[in-house]
Write a structure and sequence with these properties.
alpha+beta; Nucleoside Triphosphate Pyrophosphohydrolase; 3 helices
Length: 160
């Protein structure tokens, strides 16, 4: 079961990213999101988390796939991947300090640069999330906190 969400909020060629002050990705840029609360759908959870972390009231998000984590050979849960586009005329000045960390707009090129070590482990799925058609799912294998392998797997279709 996937208990977490992550959303990449796009505006043109920029993505609103969060440099977290705590947690597993402290000091790295990542999308916004968090734990799905009891009774929430994944969409309700991601919309609530986006509101809590950014103050943005999104009306819609697009589910782009899932990430499953395997740590030291054991299933460790996972997260649902989302993207949201906001119009250019929506003003969201950054950088801005929030409880979770610092929010700032980053260009897609900067985020996707393979030499960029300042981002979470997003290089394998982010191109598909930002521009890809359809959904993809991935399994991330870690030994301790070190990523050792990423496998793409068939995405499970949404229930009708």
């Amino acid at each position: 079961m996937y208990n977490y969400t992550i959303c990449f909020i796009k505006q043109g060629n920029h993505v609103l990213m969060l440099n977290r002050e705590k947690g597993a990705w402290m000091g790295r840029w990542n999308g916004v999101g968090g734990k799905i609360e009891e009774g929430e759908t994944r969409e309700q959870g991601v919309l609530r988390e986006v509101k809590e972390e950014t103050d943005l009231d999104l009306s819609a998000v697009i589910h782009k796939g899932d990430i499953e984590w395997v740590v030291d050979g054991k299933a460790y849960g996972g997260m649902h991947l989302f993207v949201a586009d906001i119009p250019e005329q929506v003003s969201y000045p950054t950088p801005v300090k929030k409880e979770e960390g610092i929010l700032d707009w980053k260009t897609c090129e900067w985020l996707l640069d393979e030499e960029n070590m300042g981002v979470a482990d997003i290089h394998d799925f982010l191109p598909q999330v930002l521009d890809g058609e359809g959904k993809k799912s991935f399994v991330y294998y870690y030994e301790g906190s070190t990523l050792v392998k990423v496998e793409e797997k068939q995405a499970v279709p949404d229930p009708v």
